[in-house]
Amino acid sequence: MRMAPLPSADGVWDRLRLAPGALADGDDIAGEAALVVAEGAIRWIGESARLPAAFAGLPRFDGGGALVTPGLVDCHTHLVYGGQRANEFAMRLAGATYEEVAQAGGGIVSSVRATRDADEDTLYAQSAARLEQLLADGVCAIEIKSGYGLALEHERKQLRVARRLGRDYGVTVRTSFLGAHALPPEYAGRSGDYIDRVCREMMPALAAEGLVDAVDVFCERIAFSLEETERVFKAAQALGLPVKLHAEQLSDMGGAALAARYGALSCDHIEHLSAEGIAAMREAGTVAVLLPGAYYTLRDTHLPPIEALRAAGVPMAVSTDHNPGTSPALSLLLMANMACTLFRLTVPEALAGITRHAARALGLQDTHGALGVGRPADFVLWLVRDAAELAYWFGQQPRRTIVRQGRIASGPLEKPIA
Ligand code: NIG
Ligand code: FE
Asked: Is the pLDDT reported for residue 415 higher than 70?
């Protein structure tokens, strides 16, 4: 689907307030700031009073004192799938656990059936509607996993949809191949054979088609063992692909330490992360991705070890984990709110979690998650007084103007004023 081009954001954006920590390099700017966009990138950023005269003649957008943040980064989603699973929500409310739902033939495998049944265009349309919701919150870069196909052609279909969404919506998409998400029913009792297939057939084929930016595994007693996880990591390493892991969500499997040994970009969920896991992640520079939406939906009570992660200086990202089973969430700002309320992150930690650290979890730290010269023009002007409002309100969207890949994607400031 070709979309009508959005209006260009080229010009000078002035009368801005930069959110604390927004700049990639250098100190915060306390006073009025300006930013120059040219050909989709940030050309200049700094105090308004220092705007070089050379830019004076460019179109001018009056920020009116808006707060500016980098475009948000949602670093863990399962956005592309068929159907939905509201029935399981009802089962869980009636007392079933996530594991019991999975054992009863629901769970991931039921989304696998719906995803296999959907053709590419149907999958695209269903996923696009969800993407639009996330983008409306100011998301400018997003990770999208496969893992509801669990067979070459269906994993390919999911990843192709993810790539198409990135092109059509002008949003940075990083794909993760999650072939090892669940055991497909046709492999029941033959987990090892399935992992062989993931490593020998699916991963190399999809990587060769340019569909894979990273490789993920669900390491858990209801999914894949530590040993199976390592086989997948070895195959990824042989193809030069970075890894990440669904680690220690329901139990401590030692997955995080293993992932760190393979230089993982991130370990995600980590409610049951151990001290050894934290030490290994710190050593490897692996990001901890917190997923309060899944914690909330599963009515989990086992908090991730936030204080220990903080003390160790492990960067903490926050993401929606959007998926039909455990986190049907489509607002990254709501996740920032929940990370504060449920996990006791500070507001600056939560805001770094949906920008700077989220970018690092995708290997995008040099281009996304902070503002700087030469980076893509991905930023959001929020009509709020205080940066804390981004995590404070929930169930409503603060008024904002979104600039994504140098285009004005939505908001009141659609045209230059001069
Ligand atoms: O991130 N933990 C595993 N995968 C998803 C759940 C997927 C599903 O239930 O469909 C998650 O929570
Ligand atoms: Fe997930």
From this structure: no
